[in-house]
Amino acid sequence: MNGFTFYSPTYFVFGQDEENNVGHYVRRFGGSRVLLHYGGGSVVRSGLLERVKKSLERESISYVELGGVKPNPRSGLVYEGISLCRKEHVDFVLAVGGGSTIDSSKAIAAGTVYEGDFWDYYQGKPIEKALPVGTVLTIAAAGSEGSPDSVITNEDGMYKRGATGEGIRPAFSILNPALTQTLSPFQTACGITDIMAHLFERYFTNTQDVEVTDRLIEGLLLTMIHQAPKVIADPNDYQARANIMWAGMMAHNNCCGVGREQDWSSHDIEHELSAVYDCAHGAGLAVVFPAWMDYTMEHDVMRFAQLATRVWGCHMDFAHPEQTAKAGITALRKFLKSIGMPGTLHELGAGEDKIQEMAHKACYGDGRSGHIGGFVPLYEEDVSRIFRLMI
Amino acid sequence: MNGFTFYSPTYFVFGQDEENNVGHYVRRFGGSRVLLHYGGGSVVRSGLLERVKKSLERESISYVELGGVKPNPRSGLVYEGISLCRKEHVDFVLAVGGGSTIDSSKAIAAGTVYEGDFWDYYQGKPIEKALPVGTVLTIAAAGSEGSPDSVITNEDGMYKRGATGEGIRPAFSILNPALTQTLSPFQTACGITDIMAHLFERYFTNTQDVEVTDRLIEGLLLTMIHQAPKVIADPNDYQARANIMWAGMMAHNNCCGVGREQDWSSHDIEHELSAVYDCAHGAGLAVVFPAWMDYTMEHDVMRFAQLATRVWGCHMDFAHPEQTAKAGITALRKFLKSIGMPGTLHELGAGEDKIQEMAHKACYGDGRSGHIGGFVPLYEEDVSRIFRLMI
Fold first, then answer.
1. Minimal Cα–Cα distance from B145 to chain A, Å?
2. Model confidence at A365: pLDDT above 90
3. Cα angle for residues B348, B352, B356 (degrees, 5° grid)
């Protein structure tokens, strides 16, 4: 177990109807002039945006609006938001939506108080200062409601890159599981896959003696595997939604990932896919992760076997641990298929013709030095081979 | 799963030698005039107090000292600390020690800025305001380094009572597992028992659909059961100490206890024991918890059976689940004995003559209304019976 610092000062408000109190929390965390940032029509159609506005109005908090966030949020809208915040003297950014809206809000919040180009942060500069951000979460997936991270796609070159820093941990996040009940089964399954991927990225490590975080990650994965089929079968299952929603936060605020090297190459690989094909992030991860596991399994068969036995309930084959490890990966593929996720590039709507280009960009694009990943360092040829395992 | 709020803004710094940076963190969190609060000789003998002072001096932070905190910390020293802080214009309380020192520091920090008697907080008034508190932790046990709680014994009547409130969450906590290597096996085992008790108090609930927190608690218990024998066998096992230390924080900052009713009657019962016999809190819990389990098992046999199978590795007896439930309690008793904990009142150094008095005080003392506990409400006669199961 390595040394670390851990700081998660977000105030979480969890439960039915809590979005109606959002004005109170904006006020509590210093907001008086708000950018209300959101995506497309669903928050309007469901009446959620209206309820949020009413709550702000009850607290006499003024706001300007910026809608139009798309999945895989783009730099163009971020620049627009920064201009708007400066012009309107905004002092608080309120995200109403999912990970894309929250990530876009974080970028705007950081960019507004930064003299340079906000993209500097997405090339490695840590974000120390930003306007405070609040969130009303509408999908359990990205974990951005509790994380210091943001991922944005730069339209100049279509690079999808992450930024991080304590400045963009949300001041508060409102988690009402009922708001996720209107998601389609596909969106729900994408969220579930993303949550599980955040856990896998932390699980596969070379750091020794990390039982406490291993066990916490395994506990969250067991929860996901048990609760996911319930919400796929019945989208209105509030209790299953609630369990998944808290698991999604815990999976990514890093309390279960501290003190250990993490991997993150599957996310890097998926980011190339969704930057080129604009596929849903979770669906992309469903295709990438099993292929990445096939490719890296031999690096630490016993870790894969541990996951297989503790999480997937596989019997340990002590004479042939690699068989157990493989059975775990098979179980993951079966699970992802059962919740409606794609299993191949083709099912994802991606082609094979850009594999080399994506592999190159993953390893060299936008300032990277030739490899990705912490568990097994992956070079361009490795990434290319992993892509071919997805065909 | 119930609605809840969760707010844990403590900055955790984890790893070797981090106590040498304490001055930096005091400065970061607004301290310039510090009360340095600690217990007896061990922090002096080990040189820890000297290292802490040097770090403060390097940052030109002035301090006044108040040592002498005892296990089951007393109100007398709290009053003394409050007077000292007011007289010396202290703006930050730094605890160097374990749960007792941290709890005493929290009481002083709250009392200093409160016009009334600090004991009001220990009779149910939530603590909203306090001087900022920092901690350098020397034992993994109470979880006070990450919790909004404090327990103090009032010398006027020997009532041991808890206070809670966001005002006393530590601003920062320094967790260096190496500092716990000098603890005796008995102290270490008391800490382990306390951590596990914090998990049990949360695990036994009547709230339905709480898989995510069940699984997290189970993961932490599995960690404790696996790591505890290592530190008992080798007190210098840094890695086992590290796993236990993070588990101890996670067990009690409540991220694994949100959204569910909790119990806490075993703590209430133990508080009577340690108020009267001044026994170590962890040792008291080792005697109380199995007896409490015997007494309450029938209330929810399946929950006990779940714990037995998932955590203690017992085989589920589907025809007789109560046998599995009992096997889990037996496994707990065996485990506690294996790490050197007492199993009876006699082994704890407590007598039988005060049972009725303690049972009465637990249920009625200091403003309580006649019963304790959330899983099974316990009245005076129940508590008395539970005490008799400890003979």
1. 13
2. no
3. 120
Shortest distance, CA A222 to any CA of chain B (angstroms): 7
What pLDDT shows up at residue A64? 98
| CA–CA min distance B16, chain A (Å) | 7
> Which chain B residues are closer than 8 Å to A29 by Cβ?
none
pLDDT tens per residue across span A264-291: 999 999 999 998 998 999 999 999 999 9
Which sign, positive or negative, has the C-alpha torsion B11, B13, B19, B25? negative
Of A14, A239, A247, nearest to B4 by CB-CB distance is A14
**CA B21/CA B302 separation, integer angstroms:** 48
Q: What is the pLDDT of residues B171-200, one digit of tens each?
A: 999 999 999 999 999 999 999 999 999 999
Its pTM surpasses 0.95: yes
The pLDDT tens digits of the residues spanning A27-65 come to 999 999 999 999 988 999 999 999 999 999 999 999 999
Of A11, A209, A250, which has the smallest distance from its Cβ to B239's Cβ? A209
Quote ipTM for the complex.
0.97
User: Alpha-carbon Rg of chain B, whole angstroms?
Assistant: 20
Q: Report all structural domains of chain A as residue ranges with CATH numbers, in order of start.
A: 11-179 (3.40.50.1970), 185-388 (1.20.1090.10)
Locate the chain A residue with the closest alpha carbon to B242.
A1
CA angle B10, B11, B12 (to 5 degrees): 105
* CB contact (8 A) between residue B14 and residue A4: yes
What DSSP assignment string belongs to A188-237? Answer: HHHHHHHHHHHHHHHHS---S--HHHHHHHHHHHHHHHHHHHHHHH-TT-
* Interchain proximity A258–B210, CB inside 8 Å: no
What is the nearest CA distance from A216 to chain B, expressed in angstroms?
Answer: 5
Is residue A220 very low, low, confident or very high in pLDDT (cuts 50, 70, 90)? very high
The torsion angles phi and psi of B74, rounded to 5 degrees, stand at -105, 155
Could you tell me the pLDDT band of residue B367, with boundaries at 50, 70 and 90? confident
The partner residue sitting opposite B212, judged by closest CB among A1, A9, A223, is A223
Among all residues of chain A, which has the CA nearest to that of B9? A9
CA angle B336, B338, B340 (to 5 degrees): 75
Chain A contact set for B7 (CB, 8 A): 9-12
